[in-house]
Amino acid sequence: MRDMETTQKGNDMMTTMWATCNKCKNQVEMTVNVDDYTSWENGALIQDAMPYLSADEREVLISGVCGTCFDKMFGSEE
């Protein structure tokens, strides 16, 4: 689940998002450019649309699973 709060920063519309992990129910907060988010929703790859997000932030948007739970399910890259 994602909740959003949109604000204007200069010429860019930014939104603060809270994505809830489906496993542990922790919320992940992130700020994204509204145009970038829209681009992703319209089919752009998330890493191209929002490269400034961490891999964990992108994962919770894609799958609804936070980085900690993802690592517990699949192991970490380290």
Please give a structural write-up.
- 37% of the residues lie in helices and 31% in strands.
- The longest helix is centred in the last third of the chain and has 9 residues, at 55-63.
- The protein has a three-stranded antiparallel sheet with strand order 1-2-3.
- With 78 residues, the protein is an alpha+beta fold.
- The model has no long low-confidence stretch (mean pLDDT 88).
- A hairpin with a 2-residue loop joins strand 1 (2-9) and strand 2.
- The chain has one domain.
- It has helices at 34-41, 46-49, 55-63, 67-74, and strands at 2-9, 12-20, 27-33.
Q: Order of strands across the widest beta sheet? A: 1-2-3
The coarse silhouette is globular
Please indicate the percent range of residues in DSSP E strands (runs of 2 or more). 25-35%
Global structural class = alpha+beta
- How helical, in percent, are the residues? 25-40%
From the structure above, extract its key features:
alpha+beta; 3-stranded antiparallel β-sheet; 78 residues; 4 helices
Q: In terms of topology, how is this protein built?
A:
Layout: E1 2-9, E2 12-20, E3 27-33, H1 34-41, H2 46-49, H3 55-63, H4 67-74
Antiparallel strand pairs: 1-2, 2-3
